[in-house]
Model the fold of this input.
Amino acid sequence: MVTIQNDILEVNTDQDAVAHIVLNMKNLPANVMNADTLSAISEAVTTVVDDPGVRGAIFTSARKEFMAGADLKAVLAFTDRQALFEGITAFNALLRKMETCGKPFVACLNGSALGGGFEIPLACHYRVAKETSCCAWASRSKILGLIPRQRRGHNACPGCGSEWKIHAIHLQGLMGAATAGSKDTDSRW
Done:
C-alpha cells in the first residue's frame, strides 16, 4: 500500500484501500502552492493512480486552512517566464490526471482553499466541506493575474453543469456521504 512522508504531505492507505493525502507544509506558516508542493502532490497522485491496490484518495489538510494558494514569494521570484508557464502546465496536467484516472478523488475541505489550492478540490470528483463560518473557497489567481486557467474552458466542475456547489456536511462518515446514492461510482469503492 501507498505510504509517502515528506515536509509537504503525508500519504497513508487505510484498510479500505483508500489513500489519505494530508497536506502539511512543515516549513511554512500555511500550505501554499509552489514548485516543491507541485512535485510532492504529483508524486502522491501518480502513486495513487498507478497502484492497482488503491481504490481512491482523499485530499485534506493537517492545518487550519486547506491551502492558501500560490506562494507569492516564489511567484514574484520567477524571472523565467517559460519555466513559470511549464510549471502551470504541469499543474494543469496533474489536475487532469486526477479527473480522468478512473479512481475517485475526494477533497475534504477543513478550511479555506484559495487560488491554486482551490483548483485541487475542483479537480476532485467529490468535495466535502466542514461546517464553519470562517472558510472561503475562491479562485483569486485570475484576479491577481498569476495563473491563467488552461485545463478547461469554463469554471465548472465535471458533472456539475455550469455551477459549482459545495455541499457542507459533517466530515464524519466522509466516504459514505460522498458516495451515497451515486450509481456510477459505488463500484469503484
User: Anything to note?
Assistant: Confidence is low (pLDDT under 50) at residues 140-189. Strands lie at 3-5, 9-13, 18-23, 56-61, 105-109, 113-114, 126-129, 137-138, 167-168. Residues 81-100 form the longest helix (20 residues).
